[in-house]
Amino acid sequence: MEKYIGQLLKMILLTFTGVIGSIIVGLLVYGSAVFSPTSIGFSFVSYGLSGAFIFAFYHVRGLSETMIAAAVVSIIQFLVVSAWINALYACIWSFGVNFSLVLLAFVFERKLAQLKQLKFLVVAVLYGAVFVFLTLLVAIISGVELLPPTIFRENFVDGLLIGLGLGVGIEGGEAFIHSLEHHGTKFSGPVEKHA
Question: pLDDT digit string (tens) for 76-100?
């Protein structure tokens, strides 16, 4: 039971720090419009929250369970977002961003471990690239022949900034957890104290 409480606390902390990181960056770019569901700035809250939860879930539970969590989060996000945007777009963006996040979480945790404090930069760039790809996918599916480069640039920057806030927030949360574990706080069972 103690193990599950520790895992739950880790997930809550990492989700909180990740979404706070994303919201802070969103406030710097869009101001308080980040809290308006009809504003483009709301993506900092929406994708910040879903992204932070997916990263936290992966950190605590691993890849296979995170795929299920990403599907559930995507369905919830789709149902909420489709209330004010086209259902096809809501589907592409909800599932596209969240399942890309599973891949990013894998890269973040496993492949970027040696980069230490610079992982958030890679996450930011990859997140921006996902936004560009999804913009192109929506254009292809909806039959738009020409999109100006400004739309791609704006979406890249938004994705980059969401990923930056999210990555810094997750890094901060992980550093806090490691610090607590180093000092003997139990997050996932007995922790060995280091001298």
Answer: 999 988 888 888 888 999 999 999 9
Position of tokens 């996000």? 77
Radius of gyration from C-alpha coordinates of the chain: 17
Distance CA 160, CA 55 (A): 16
Does 186 or 160 have the greater pLDDT score? 160
**Chain Cα centroid distance, residue 162:** 8
Write out the DSSP string of 109-139.
IIITGGGGGGHHHHHHHHHHHHHHHHHHHHH
Q: Cα–Cα distance between 37 and 26 in angstroms, integer? A: 13
Going by the DSSP 8-state scheme, the letter that residue 35 receives in this structure is G
Q: Which string of DSSP letters, residue by residue, matches 159-176?
A: HHHHHHHHHHHHHHHHHH
pTM exceeds 0.90, yes or no: no
In angstroms, the CA 181 to CA 191 distance is: 6
Q: Cα angle at 179 between 188 and 125, to 5 degrees?
A: 95
Burial of 37 from C-beta contacts in 10 A (0-12 / 13-18 / 19+): exposed
Query: Helix or strand or coil: residue 194?
Result: coil
